[in-house]
Amino acid sequence: MRPEPQTRPLSFYIVAAEESGDALGAALVRALQACHSGALTFNGVGGRAMAAAGIVSPFAIDELSIMGIAAIPRRLRMILRRIRQTAAAVVAARPDALVIIDSPDFTHRVARRVRRLAPKIPILDYVSPSIWAWRPGRARAMRAYVDQVLAILPFEPAVHVKLGGPPCLYVGHPMVEHIAELRPNAEEAQRRRANPPVVLVLPGSRASEIRHLLGTFGAAIAQVAARSGPMELVLPTVPHLMAQVSAGVAGWAVAPRIVVEPADKWAAFRRARVALAASGTVTLELALAGIPAVAAYRLSIVEWNIARLLRMRSTLPSVILANLVLGENVIPELLQSDCTPEHLSEALLPLLSDTAQRQRQIEAFGRLDAIMAIGGEAPSAKAAAIVLGVAQHGRRDPAALSASSQPC
After folding, report:
1. Tens digit of pLDDT per residue, the chain (408 long)?
2. Who is most buried in 45, 124, 201, 275, counting CB within 10 A?
3. Which of 165, 48, 192 is nearest to 104 (CA)?
4. What are the distances in angstroms from CA 354 to CA 112, 273, 294, 350, 361?
5. What CA–CA distance (Å, rounded) separates 258 from 239?
6. Rounded distance, CA 322 to CA 299, Å?
7. Are 45 and 59 in contact, with CB atoms under 8 Å apart?
8. Starting from the edge strand earliest in sequence, which strands make up the sheet with 257-259, in order?
9. Domains of the chain by range and CATH?
10. Contact 273, 350 (CB under 8 A)
């Protein structure tokens, strides 16, 4: 059923701790406003996108942009302070629903504290933690403080059932709403085939990812350029990393054009022939855009050994998100000791021309529309309908409410 029309004011607290979650939060705010005729109040923690949607964050989320277990102790006091501050603000606001978005190391600690201090506040988790890859025991633990999970990957509801997690529904990946921004028109498709080729370099959106990957990526690109000839290099990043990235590419053999605006990033996606990317959500964006890619990742030795221990029980054939959604290892993954300029350049070079390696990726990417239900209702609208249903009815059987909700 569609959440029943009503004029009772509703309030929401939305917590996002990094750029991708910030964008999701902003889209959710807009969808909730379109879905509900009554007065809505929004508070939360977020970044530029949520600020544009009307949510003023009490602190900059840039300070929460950390990666890796080894980085946490150095900033633990600040992180704990922000967790307490955010939970206290949620409890003081007494929203009809709290929506936590991704970044589980931060948002789930906020949710647990809110559940302890104000157990009647419904809590929804927008973007499931990667329980299918790391720490599967988190799924069952989440039942104590999460009433509903909104999944953005099609295989996640079944994983939550298998692992005993909270009720979980697939609402769709946010990139589905921007598919036109990813895919080229006729002129842009022609540019993909033209020389010099546009090559995307995507070293990540965290400072530690830049530190671990940028130099290696630059050396790999130099080797590719030496063998394939001139190229147009584009490196999208986020504003708070601009200085670090600019300093890191200063000595590159091929100077990249650094872009920070989303419109410039997507324009590059529509023209790019290949990409070299950090493992993460961007690999799925590249697959949806039809761009053959090589994915890589590197951690410190301590972080890598801990990550291996956490993943020991996993039977996943890949850590690359696009490969997992496709159910096939089509994007090469070069991790840790394999993440070298030589290995990266050897994997990237064949993708620049019409080879079997390139064609295999393109053909696999063509299956994504069916797998991800692209072309249906917007994911943000599906998420908004579920959030409204839970907010209107409280914690009374949110699974039944959300399962019967219709998109706005």
Report:
1. 444 444 579 999 999 998 889 999 999 999 999 999 889 999 999 999 999 999 999 998 887 865 444 556 777 889 999 999 999 999 999 999 999 999 998 999 999 999 999 999 999 999 999 998 878 899 999 999 999 999 999 999 999 999 999 999 999 999 888 899 999 999 999 999 999 999 999 999 888 899 999 999 999 999 999 999 999 999 999 898 999 999 999 999 999 999 999 999 999 999 999 999 999 889 999 999 999 999 998 876 766 555 565 554 455 667 788 999 998 999 999 998 899 999 999 999 999 999 999 999 999 999 999 999 898 899 999 999 999 999 998 866 555 555 546 667
2. 45
3. 165
4. 52, 11, 16, 8, 11
5. 10
6. 21
7. yes
8. 257-259, 232-236, 198-202, 274-278, 293-297, 333-335
9. 10-172+374-404 (3.40.50.2000), 180-371 (3.40.50.2000)
10. no
**What's 167's DSSP letter?**
-
Q: What is the pTM assigned to this prediction?
A: 0.79
Q: Could you say which DSSP state residue 350 is in?
A: G
Query: Two tokens at 338?
Result: 């394999």
Give the position of tokens 């029943």: 4
Of 129, 83, 30, 108, residue with least CA distance to 380:
30
Vertex 17: Cα angle to 401 and 210 (nearest 5) = 135
